[in-house]
Design brief:
Layout (H helix, E strand, L loop, with lengths): L1 H9 L10 H35 L5 H39 L1
């Protein structure tokens, strides 16, 4: 998804090579869906970290480290995706206003 958004953002803004507004909107929809999935994954990871911590076992360090790594990765992916979606949203807004 990140690659698709970057391709749209790097494409010319006018002419035959410019992406259509429909393509931008479809990509935005898919991107927002992926962002929601990443947020759900973050929520699941945070919940699991809490569960592991409450269990009080002595052998939780490996699981907590793995969960923490996954949470950090999801945070980074979500931050990058949101930033790109914001930029693409603005590009689509400008294209919509030019088409009017």
């Amino acid at each position: 998804m990140v690659t698709q958004i970057q391709e749209l953002l790097n494409a010319p803004t006018s002419g035959a090579q410019a992406p259509s507004l429909a393509r931008m909107e479809d990509t935005l929809t898919e991107g927002y869906a992926q962002a929601l999935a990443l947020e759900a994954e973050r929520w699941r990871l945070e919940r699991r970290i809490g569960e592991v911590a409450r269990e009080g076992r002595n052998d939780v360090s490996d699981e907590l480290r793995s969960l923490g790594t996954r949470l950090t990765r999801a945070d980074g992916e979500l931050t990058q995706l949101r930033s790109l979606l914001g930029t693409l949203h603005e590009r689509a807004r400008v294209l919509r206003s030019e088409s009017s």
